[in-house]
Amino acid sequence: MKTLIASLAFSLITVPAFAMCVGTDTFSSCTDASGNSYSVQRMGNTTFMNGTNTRTGSNWSQTSTTIGNSTFHNGIDKDGEGWTSTCINGFCN
Q1: Is residue 66 within 8 Å of residue 90, measured between CB atoms?
Q2: % of residues, the chain, pLDDT over 90
Q3: Is the pLDDT of residue 90 over 90?
Q4: What single string gives the DSSP state of each residue in 9-23?
Q5: Cα separation of 75 and 85, whole Å?
Q6: Is the predicted pLDDT of residue 44 greater than 60, yes or no?
């Protein structure tokens, strides 16, 4: 019984937040059940995303550019810290 309860509790924690988006392929606005609102703009091989969380007041942004089989990500996290990541053939650092 304890295993069943632990499994159920874990499954509730890992349920993904699904976003509801409106817009077009080039620009959309999204919200989710966690209080996040964000915009996604696609221009050629680059995608820009800017978001905010109405519950916490945090903001973040991300830019992703794909060149061949590589995608370069960079952004600002909710704490204002910059970050980068590179994905090549689906493997990211």
Answers
A1: no
A2: 71
A3: no
A4: HHHHHTPPPPEEEEE
A5: 9
A6: yes
